[in-house]
Amino acid sequence: MYDSEDDDFDRSIFVGAWNVAGRSPFGSLAVDVSEWLNLKDAADMFQEIVPLKTNNVIGVEDPTEATNWNCTPEINTRPELSKAQNERGAHGGSKYKLMASKKMVGVFISVWMKMEFLTKYCISNVKVSSVACGIMGYLGNKAAVSGSMSIEGTSFCFIAAHLASGEKRGDEGRRNHQVSEIFRRTSFPNFF
């Protein structure tokens, strides 16, 4: 991704999606992020969570659901370290910072990065986008939300989508059309 004579940028990215059936991260979902990642080494950056709540398709969305999910990764992903070590970042312990977040009906994306990267690497152009492709091609019951950013001049785009289901004739074509629409209509406008 990044290469210079003095420094190599070699970092891991974890991308995951979970259908959490429209539930907020409480009760059975209120777990330490390390249990979700279940990795030997903590990820340097990750994006996740796809809650589904269809009663928001036409009505007003509840912003507290996205807020609840955005609070979850604040938990350190190295629980074996003491609180003092976590706060200092000792032994590779890491805190994450929310870089981008977007919710649309039942689709939610949040992109997080290690705090230490914010001063070490050039992070720019952090943007979000959403595309509705459900009923009549424009309701958000089927949709995608995206987060984009540049790290040391290399662009990244993360997309979470909820597409048409089914295995009947024509269902695969409908999903492929939705993906084409998502690619065509996703944009990250420049703000001046």
Automatic annotation (TrEMBL):
Domain Inositol polyphosphate-related phosphatase: 17-188
Gene Ontology MF term list: inositol-polyphosphate 5-phosphatase activity; phosphatidylinositol-3,4,5-trisphosphate 5-phosphatase activity; phosphatidylinositol-4,5-bisphosphate 5-phosphatase activity
Stored Gene3D superfamilies: Endonuclease/exonuclease/phosphatase
Tagged with keyword Hydrolase: yes
Keywords for this protein: Hydrolase
GO biological process: phosphatidylinositol dephosphorylation
A Pfam family recorded for this sequence: Exo_endo_phos2
Family in the record: Belongs to the inositol polyphosphate 5-phosphatase family.
Protein name, per record: Inositol polyphosphate-related phosphatase domain-containing protein
